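Annex B. Sample input.
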Amino acid sequence: MTENLAPQRVLVFGAAGHIGAPLVRYIMRRSPKTAIRAVTSDVSKLAGISERLPGAEGVVADYLKPDTLAAALDGVDAVFIVTPDFLDEVAAMTNLVRAVRAAGTVRHIVRITGDPPGIDDEAKVPQVLRDWEGGTAIQHTVARKILDDSGLPVSYVNIAAYMMDDYLTMFAPSLMLHRMITLPFDHKMAYIDPTDIGEAAGEILLNTDGEFVGKTTHLDNGQDLLLFSEVAELLGEVLGEKIVFDDTPEKFDEVNGDILRTWIGRGDAVDYYIEYFRWEAEISDRFRITDVVERLLGRKAKSLRKWFEEHKTALRTPAAT
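Annex B, continued. Sample output.
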């Protein structure tokens, strides 16, 4: 990328999030002349964008509200897309494609996906997970088809790993209450820091020569490919205490069931995740460690041990009782 080819204005969805915010900061450092339009779907968070991302223009937009997309895309020539779990991707990406076409100025789109490497088609996902007609297992493949069929210049950045801050979110109930990691069917997984995802995606977004368009760049930290039971041992070493591991579906349901059923709004939410982890374990040999982040950014990605060390305080904080 050369400075004169850099995007003039980038629209960043999820700009206040754990991937979007590092991406915005990276672009500001890497290409200071590129203007940032930072999206939030929650008007109450608009003021916070200015505080967290000084210099960015905050806007309210929603994938499911086409009128907001048209205004957000005005004068934009590059777009970063990240979506939440269980979003209606058919409606969201159809709306976005129409808005991008109407704007007529977008030269590059970068879409975050989160699939096992090689799972780029819904047909490769077990029927039991496809029957949900949405969710983690298929939503990115659904979005990919819509974007591919659009003919727009899309580059895919696939998180081919677990994000390290999952240990402060997804794993938090068992870790904080029981000093335990619980996830069905112990299997190997790669890892990556969300900051490294954001910066790598930012580098790709700034590329304007078409090198990444139509391709998928799989991201991992190049260092950690561990069983979840091994992660429990590593975390215990860092914290200086015993962290146990339980891979039984029963314990997973006991600790996380009520949370998942409330979050997703379905009584069979735990069943979905148990089947998802069963499938993930069966194809765990697809996960690997690579030097992709290092080649993109010119530095090594963060190790899981280093991330644990940096977040010791939060990882030691007991859940409120």
